[in-house]
Amino acid sequence: MKAIKSFINYLLSSQKDYYNGLKTLLGFWPGNLSLYKSALRHKSAAQEVQDGFRNSNERLEFLGDAILDSVVAEFLFKRFPYKSEGFLTEMRSKIVNRNKLSELAFNIGLDHFVDVSKRNKDESLQFKSIYGNALEALIGAVYLDRGYDFAKKFTLNSLILPFINIEELELVDTNFKSKLLEWSQKENKEIKFVVIEESGLEHNKKYTVQVSLDEENIGVGEEFTKKKAEQLAAQRALDWISKNNQHVE
Predict the structure, then answer these.
(1) What structural domains does the chain harbor?
(2) Could you say which of 61, 90, 111, 136 is catalytic?
(3) What is the model's pLDDT at position 200?
(4) Catalytic-role residue among 58, 65, 223, 230
(5) Most buried of 39, 105, 146, 210 (most Cβ within 10 A)?
(6) Cβ–Cβ < 8 Å for 140, 55
(7) What is the pTM of this model?
(8) Closest Cα to residue 196, out of 223, 220, 232?
(9) 3-state secondary structure of 28
(10) Are 204 and 62 a contacting pair, CB within 8 Å?
């Protein structure tokens, strides 16, 4: 029934090109078009709608992050019935880390749909997390538009199963914070993680964590939990170290 209503919305819409583009991206006709537009609107292109609130994709990103975590957790729980909680947690972090999500976003062509201000276009190519964030927001939009079961199928069948090799992922070390701290101890360097900003409401907070190397800032991460923000900041710090010709094993 929802599919029929969505197709009728398409027939009656004056934005058929946009509908067709989303149909190609998603694999189904979107129902509530405004949800998907919100999901694909970066904060740099957002406008104030009420009392300082801007209509960016950050709220949908928060929701999509929770849906994605739930779907991936169930998938791994069933896929690995005899593995420990620690193993499942690590595998989930490998799938939902910002780099992997950005990679998935590019795999499905989401970068062509994200609404970013002209001033931020170049930055969006440098900081690809913009697209990983948009992917989470898209999952949130699918959930609100079609329900949890549909969002679960979309996440598994359109994102995880086609593009992620679980066996290969098992062999990847993605505890970036641990890797960074091990390197600093070996090289006798001082590494600090500091929360430099907390934004949003109490139940919808985003944490910005900064990593410094001997008092020099070398990485920043922004996520909905401190742990995820630290991992993202550590990953970017390791990239900085590598680019500055310092070997990290």
Answers:
(1) 2-170 (1.10.1520.10), 176-243 (3.30.160.20)
(2) 136
(3) 79
(4) 65
(5) 39
(6) no
(7) 0.72
(8) 220
(9) coil
(10) yes
Q: What pLDDT was estimated at residue 162?
A: 96
Cβ count near 16 (within 10 Å): 11
pLDDT tens digits for 140-191? 999 999 999 999 999 999 999 999 999 998 888 778 898 899 999 999 999 9
The answer to whether 142 touches 150, Cβ cutoff 8 Å, is yes
Is 65 in the active site? Answer: yes
Alpha helix (H) residue ranges in the chain: 2-12, 16-26, 33-39, 58-79, 85-96, 98-107, 121-126, 129-146, 148-154, 161-163, 166-170, 176-187, 226-243
For residue 67 the two structure tokens come to 């849906």
As a residue count, the chain comes to: 249
Collapsing DSSP to helix, strand or coil, 48 comes out as strand
- Scanning the structure block, which residue is given the tokens 């900064």? 210
Distances (CA, A) of 207 to 28, 52, 174, 204: 34, 20, 20, 10
* pLDDT digits 0-9 by tens, 1-51: 666 555 555 555 557 788 888 999 999 989 899 999 999 998 887 677 666
136 in catalytic set: yes
